[in-house]
Amino acid sequence: MSVKAVEQNGGLDKLSSDYGNELDLEQLDSLVKSLDSEQIERECGLRNQLIANRKQLRADRYEQGHILKQYRDLYRQDGQWLLFCKAIGVNDRTARRLIEGYSAAAALPEPVRQVAAKQGVDLAAKKNHVLTSELTKHAANEVTDSQARDIFRRTRDKIRAKQASVTLSPEERVDKVYKLIQRLYGRVSPEQRINEFQLLRKKVDHYFSIPSSDTDPDMSLMKTNVFSFPSAEAS
Q1: Same domain, yes or no: 9 and 76
Q2: Distance between CA atoms of residues 44 and 7, nearest Å
Q3: Residue 150's domain spans which residues?
Q4: Alpha carbon distance 22, 199 (integer Å)
Q5: Contacts of 215 (CB under 8 A, 6+ apart)
Q6: Least crowded by CB within 10 Å, which of 41, 64, 168, 200?
């Protein structure tokens, strides 16, 4: 099938109109012209997947890596891979990391990946690299669903216990919370910020069953005015 035939069948033209300006469609279409007819059909299917995946609010890193790996197999020659990365707005380093994450997760038995997915864990994500590596050590090539559940649970519990053993100082804990609040609330209006901090204080008081700052001066950190840092616009 020629490039022109794919366009006439609603392939490239339809994909271009659907995705707007988030991809360099002119560059993608130019790259397609270097492919043979079988590869063109593969690219058309891959671009459909790429578009659907990128439109998700929280993209699946496993699926992203899978799509990128297939694209890399298409565009290995004469610097085409770097041109492709530029066309989709992803640098080569990020693309390689996504492919590596996918490859590591894909090496695990399917039952293990299914257990992780049901738990909302993307084994291809960088934050789960340690978990994926440990699962690789303990999961055989063939495991039953029951074995997969047990392996996943024991491995994750072991990692959590190890992470919990790393104790932060009070200053480090406060600093981590403060930086997180800065990122979350830098552009939130002062009024909304106060309302949400009051709600946060109630939740914390309830969860830890601690006295409020009104009766305990040591709890002054929970007072909302502590968090009245400048907005991102003012900084």
Answers
A1: yes
A2: 10
A3: 108-164
A4: 38
A5: none
A6: 168
Q: State which of 104, 120, 152 marks the end of a domain.
A: 104
Together in a domain, 187 and 134 = no
Residues 6+ apart with CB under 8 A from 112: 135, 139, 143, 148, 151, 152
Compute the Cα dihedral for 25, 31, 36, 41 and give only its sign.
negative
pTM for this model (two decimals): 0.59
Instruction: Going from the first residue of the chain to its last (235 residues), give the mean pLDDT of each consecutive group of 10, the final group possibly shorter.
Output: 40 35 80 90 89 64 90 86 90 91 93 92 91 86 88 90 75 87 90 92 79 46 45 44
Neighbouring residues of 190: CB distance < 8 A, sequence distance ≥ 6: 228, 231
Q: Report how far apart, in Å, the C-alpha atoms of 95 and of each of 20, 64, 88, 89, 91 are.
A: 22, 9, 10, 10, 6
3-state helix, strand, coil in the chain (%, to 5): 70, 0, 30
